[in-house]
Amino acid sequence: MAKTWSITVPGSTANLGPGFDSIGLALGLYLKLEVTLQDEWEFEHHSVHLPEKFTVEEHLVYTVAKEVAERFDVELPGCKIVMTSELPLARGLGSSASAIVAGIEVANQVCELNLTLEQKYTLASRIEGHPDNASASVCGGLTIGASLPNGDLELIHTQDVQAAFAVFIPNVELKTAEARKVLPPQYDKAYAVHASANANMLTAALLTKDYKRAGKFMEHDLFHEPFRANLIPNYHEIRQTAKDAGAYGTAISGAGPTVISLLPIEKVTAFVEKMKPLFPTYDIQAVRVDTKGVQVEIHETIN
After folding, report:
1. Is 93 annotated as a binding residue?
2. 91: annotated binding-site residue?
3. Does the annotation list 90 as a binding residue?
4. I need a labelling partner for 277 at 20 to 30 A (CA). Which of 63, 112, 161, 171 fits?
5. What is the DSSP letter of 139?
6. Is 95 labelled as part of a ligand binding site?
7. Which residues contact 183 (CB under 8 A, 6 or more apart)?
8. How confident is the model at residue 1 (pLDDT cuts 50, 70, 90)?
9. Residue 264 annotated in ligand binding
10. Would you place residue 90 in the very low, low, confident or very high pLDDT band (cuts 50, 70, 90)?
């Protein structure tokens, strides 16, 4: 009998404005892998959203799977992995986090590690460097995370998100490292208190499903958006036009350059159709919230 593992990982948005490096939301855009065992490692990319040129040794899925296997002191067998993706690279939709989660799941399956959900999102968050995108891709739904001084990750997550989102994806990349360079090295006390209060209100509004108020605080970030706004094409215009068309709020998705709007579920389709002719250089999509997180199906065939 030969096994094939089908692994599906949702993309994600991070921050939703002031929830900087803490809040993540899984989106219904997916990275998919078909994994089979063989003697040597091999990747096939079947998507315009995946790199044409790469080496196995530097492939993020491979390096993460190898790191996880070494962490648990097991041997990582050779694999052939066929990948497709709906996640454009360097657009703020969690493409790297989804690859990290995929690498963890590859090792989990082929090395029979039986990792718990907590182990998966803790590993993914440590490798990613923060819990927002990574934990959302593991758990699905809305995640809010923070690392304690001892390194422990505390996470709250809920799959019950009764709202819809629209993403404005430009045809330009913005690397997270570049977007972080424009942030100030520190904030003064009064500024930080104000920024933290806005993040607290966003979190409370999301958890109590007060989406109108959540949208308001999405647009009152002080941690990163004031400094990144000029890196995002049409940022101010999109935000105002979206509000005029009924969006609760609009924010930069992750580090950008994608912009994301929060809407009532019943309005998102009409909203997207209205926005498309106004911003023709953007790929504008209605996206649902993914509620399942990383999923695995195992298929067995007779050789």
Report:
1. yes
2. yes
3. yes
4. 161
5. H
6. yes
7. 223, 224, 227, 228
8. low
9. no
10. confident
Confidence at residue 78, expressed as pLDDT on a 0 to 100 scale: 97
Give the SS3 label for residue 248.
Answer: coil
Distances (CA, A) of 69 to 121, 122, 125, 219: 16, 15, 17, 42
Q: What is the rounded distance in angstroms from the CA atom of residue 33 to the CA atom of residue 236?
A: 37
Q: Is the per-residue pLDDT at 303 higher than 70?
A: no
pLDDT tens per residue, range 203-245: 999 999 999 999 999 999 999 999 999 999 899 999 999 999 9
Bridge partners of residue 299, in order along the sequence: 4
Give me the helices (H) in the chain, please.
Answer: 60-71, 95-110, 117-128, 132-139, 176-181, 189-207, 211-218, 225-228, 235-244, 268-275
| Contact present, 89 and 25 (Cβ < 8 Å) | no
Question: In CATH, what number does 164-287 get?
Answer: 3.30.70.890
- The size of the chain, in residues, is 303
Q: Is 31 annotated as a binding residue?
A: no
pLDDT band at 46 (very low <50, low <70, confident <90, very high): very high
Angle at 176 between CA 28 and CA 211, to 5 degrees: 45
Give 3-state DSSP helix, strand, coil % of the chain, rounded to 5. 35, 25, 35
Please tell me whether 134 is known to bind a ligand.
no
Is 213 among the annotated ligand-binding positions?
A: no
Reported pTM? 0.95
**Terminal-residue alpha carbon distance, the chain:** 6
pLDDT band per the 50, 70, 90 thresholds, residue 176? confident
**Residues facing 284 on adjacent strands:** 168
89 annotated as a binding-site residue = yes
Cα 263 to Cα 52, 120, 164, 243, distances in angstroms: 36, 31, 5, 10
Look up residue 251 and give its two tokens: 């924010």
CATH number of 2-159+290-301: 3.30.230.10
Domain locations in the chain as residue ranges: 2-159+290-301, 164-287
Amino acid at 63: T
